From TrEMBL:
Family membership noted in the UniProt record: Belongs to the nlpA lipoprotein family.
Superkingdom per UniProt: Bacteria
PROSITE patterns: PROKAR_LIPOPROTEIN (PS51257)
Keyword terms, alphabetized: Lipoprotein, Membrane, Palmitate, Signal
InterPro entries (UniProt xref): Lipoprotein_NlpA
Localization: Membrane
Protein topology in the membrane: Lipid-anchor
Protein name per the record: Lipoprotein
Length: 275
């Protein structure tokens, strides 16, 4: 039986930054007890789906007691990992993790890269990126790293030009050339696919695209290239927990041939194994 606990993050996220880093109690004790289950915070798609595959097909044989908790935002999984409410998380990229630690004083570290979810540009109004009209509105994620990734994607496909060297820290203020006079609507990443009826196009993270029944490999007007991409999604823990035997076992299972085949079969190019 699937044992995945879904968390209503609309309630949790509001207190995550103020309370999450100081929370303590039985949840923390349970999550850090190496004799108990390894509780992993994850975005529903594809992260929790991959973890559930591991739980249902690989974990028992490997001697791993795995529990999956689903979160729909990009904040609470890290604050819950920091305060010990969960033992690990699986939802983010290294640039996002570095930025989060810097801004929030957290101590989350990467354990292993698992997959890439290519960021894509989608539209309900045009079929090709170059069909966007002058003054078109494009929704982009509003968190630092994903906003920068979105603008880099648009720049890589000739829709705008950015200042040299801005990387994933890019914001609309770093645009040096904007021939189509695009305007940008900055939204929480989870809201970008829902905005497609209200904007001309939206840059959507791979996990949220899949949740919205978009097929990145087929539906995206333009898509991030996989080669040389630093934005692989990773398993992460609080610093000092890297040697937890449960974490090591999960890292092995997440990078196993069985998981690679599951990713290839289920996501058909919309999620790419990075191992």
């Amino acid at each position: 039986m699937r044992n995945t606990a879904k968390i209503t993050t609309a309630v949790l996220a509001t207190g995550a930054l103020t309370l999450g880093l100081t929370a303590c109690g039985s949840d923390k004790d349970d999550a850090s007890d190496a004799s108990g289950p390894l509780v992993v915070a994850a975005s529903p798609v594809p992260h929790a789906e991959i973890l559930t595959y591991v739980k249902d097909n690989l974990a028992e044989k490997a001697g791993l007691d795995l529990e999956v908790k689903e979160f729909t935002d990009y904040v609470t999984p890290n604050t819950a990992t920091e305060d010990g409410s969960v033992g690990a998380n699986f939802f983010q990229t290294q640039p996002y993790l570095d930025d989060f630690n810097k801004k929030n004083g957290t101590h989350i570290v990467s354990v292993v890269d698992v997959h890439l979810e290519p960021l894509g540009l989608y539209s309900h109004k045009v079929k090709k990126a170059d069909e966007l009209k002058s003054g078109a509105t494009v929704a982009i994620p509003n968190d630092t790293v994903n906003e920068g990734r979105a603008l880099q994607l648009l720049a890589a496909n000739g829709l705008l030009t950015l200042k040299d060297g801005v990387g994933t820290a890019a914001t609309p203020a770093d645009i040096t050339e904007n021939p189509k006079k695009l305007t940008f609507k900055e939204l929480e990443a989870a809201q970008t696919p829902r905005s497609l009826d209200d904007v001309d196009a939206a840059v959507v993270n791979g996990n949220y695209a899949i949740e919205a029944d978009l097929k990145p490999a087929k539906d995206a007007l333009v898509l991030e290239a996989a080669e040389g991409n630093p934005n692989n999604n990773l398993l992460a823990v609080k610093e000092g927990q890297e040697d937890d035997p449960r974490v090591k076992k999960l890292a092995e299972l997440l990078t196993s041939p069985e998981v690679k085949k599951f990713i290839e079969d289920k996501y058909a190019g919309s999620v790419l194994a990075s191992f």
